[in-house]
Amino acid sequence: MKTIYRFHWDCRRMGTLSGLFIADTQQVAEAMGKKIDFGEVLGKHSEIYGVLEENDLEVVTDDQQFIQQCITVFGDGTISGYNPLEYQTDEEIDFDMNEGEDE
Q: Which residues pair with 21 in a beta bridge?
């Protein structure tokens, strides 16, 4: 079943990322807990990445008639902003804050 989702990530001092997109509920369920890597979308050296969690997404509507009308107008996928499913990667996520420092 298709659903319209609102995505939001607060990247603290770097800014925020948000988006509105249409996706299949199964596709979203499979993306939960996976690494999302946006790269340097908030400026040079920003490197925005993390794990997609349920609280990052809000269901806007699952009204199939409305969603079909949206698909006709906007296409299937991203309506506006960032769609985290388009930035999903199979790489392991490394949150080592001391990366590159000698011990």
A: 5, 78
HEC profile of the chain: CEEEEEEEEECHHHCEEEEEEEEEHHHHHHHCCCEEEEECCCCCCCCEEEECCHHHEEEEECCHHHHHHHHHHHCCCEEEECCHHHHEECCCCCCCCCCCCCC
pLDDT digits (tens, 9 = 90+) for 55-77: 999 999 999 999 999 999 999 99
Burial class (CB in 10 A: 0-12, 13-18, 19+), 37: middle
Q: Tokens 């008639």 sit at which residue?
A: 65
The CA distance from 3 to 12, in Å, is: 28
Q: Tens digits of per-residue pLDDT, 5-40?
A: 999 999 999 899 999 999 999 999 999 999 999 999
Predicted model pTM: 0.85
Spatial separation of the C-alpha atoms in residues 101 and 91, rounded to whole Å: 22
